[in-house]
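Standup notes
- HV: blocked on the assembly model, inputs below
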Amino acid sequence: MTKSLQFSQSIRSWMDVFMHRSMRGWGLFAKSTGLSMPQFSILMQLHHKGVCGVSDISERFDITNAAASQLVDKLVQSGFIKREEDPHDRRAKLLNLTDKGKELIQQGIEERYRWVDQLAEKLTVEERAKVAEALDIMTQAAKELEAEPAQQAP
Amino acid sequence: MTKSLQFSQSIRSWMDVFMHRSMRGWGLFAKSTGLSMPQFSILMQLHHKGVCGVSDISERFDITNAAASQLVDKLVQSGFIKREEDPHDRRAKLLNLTDKGKELIQQGIEERYRWVDQLAEKLTVEERAKVAEALDIMTQAAKELEAEPAQQAP
DNA sequence: ATATACAGTTAAGCCAGCTTAACTAAAAAG
DNA sequence: CTTTTTAGTTAAGCTGGCTTAACTGTATAT
């Protein structure tokens, strides 16, 4: 299984570089928007997951409902989030990004992309093809993994 | 340049999945250690960059020296960081992780790796080889990019 | 129909991070 | 040898996130 070790090594090196870079990027971007990290993270969550309830937020970040509600409220008042009543359960709220909210995080994503675009410029055409193929494989696998929830816990 | 578009698309999909996953992971891990995100991020910075001064921290996170100094002090008192005088410049301090600090963030990294190891299990041997090759290419390019500082600004 | 559980809000209060401002001490500049 | 920068620390005070606790209103169970 030396091949497997090779694989591990490659992916670890990549993660080190990539994670450091992107965390730095997100941190500075969040700061530049004037939003706090918790607030910004909620926007990211909504971007990724789509419509959520308040308790989805609190679970995701491991905070109380009260805390989530307060954070959400600030984001609603700043116009980044819209909060509507769930017609099927009038206790619950449907949270989602407003256009303003979408635009903001899209801007952050674009900035992150810009880095990898620069990175792409360093590659030859064949390399780019190889990388694209590999990343598609990884993305596919990641999505499969996400679909099956916690297989090792009974 | 359709190839280039294909590349962009692949890498963007991957980034979306990967970033969301790893940010969530880091957030929860940091929380589980009892450290705040700012404190935890400083440990990450030291892990990545090695020995730093206080002002390296403040620059990196775009905070004042005062704030960095205070955060560092807490980490020193908790035993995650050691702070020594720079023999070449007695104003400056040399910050670095202690063994305890190294162990902590190593543990976080291992958790993150565990996910991609699961991911690897979803791949065939050939796929793994392809992915490993591609990631090595990317890592190499990323390091080159990091070496040349801000080429577009004059 | 009444009791219980659930989704979310509100208020009080704590704590951590951050800033400004004032300070110490060492290095560089003149 | 003075003056000015530079690296870092300290203290006071503000703000924002988070928690607990009490509460509203809606859905579910008995």
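- HV (later): unblocked. The beta strands of chain B are 81-86, 89-97. Residues 2-33 of chain B form the longest helix (32 residues).
- Next: hand off to the docking folks.
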